[in-house]
Design brief:
Helices cover about 35% and strands about 30% of the residues. It has three helices and five strands. Strand 4 and strand 5 form a beta hairpin. Pfam families: UPF0102 (PF02021).
Length: about 130
């Protein structure tokens, strides 16, 4: 059983999460990606979650809108384990809502990536980390 988390612990976790997102966004931008949105939400009230980063990966043959989940974890495997099936469903709903609100990107491919940020090394990046359930 995990210990209860008070307001101070939540604020600390919020700061750590924002710092990890900042690091991931800077790292992806250095790779040539365009950050389209941060902490994006889609379809409020329908169980959709928050997308840490929405980015355009234009480094390949065709542009791809990438919905990036960022985790501050010691390894990429630990980060992937932290993304539960329920969270994946919420992210897929949020992505669907974001795409509906931004039809200019409707023709691009779509992918869900994971970036793991550690305090002592470069971010780990898992492309196409999961696919939404159909």
């Amino acid at each position: 059983m995990t210990p209860p988390r008070g307001p101070a612990a939540r604020r600390s976790a919020e700061r750590a999460g924002r710092a990890a997102e900042d690091a991931a966004a800077a790292w992806l931008a250095a790779q040539g990606w365009i950050i389209l949105a941060r902490r994006a939400r889609g379809r409020r009230g329908e169980g959709a979650g928050e997308i840490d980063l929405v980015a355009l990966d234009a480094t390949g043959a065709a542009p791809v809108v990438v919905f990036v989940e960022v985790k501050a974890r010691p390894t990429l495997a630990a980060a992937l384990e932290a993304v539960t099936p329920a969270q994946r469903r919420r992210l897929a709903l949020a992505a669907e809502g974001w795409l509906a609100a931004h039809p200019v990107h409707a023709g691009a491919g779509v992918r869900f990536d994971l970036v793991s940020v550690t305090p002592d090394g470069p971010p780990g990046h898992l492309r196409d980390a999961w696919r939404p359930e159909e």
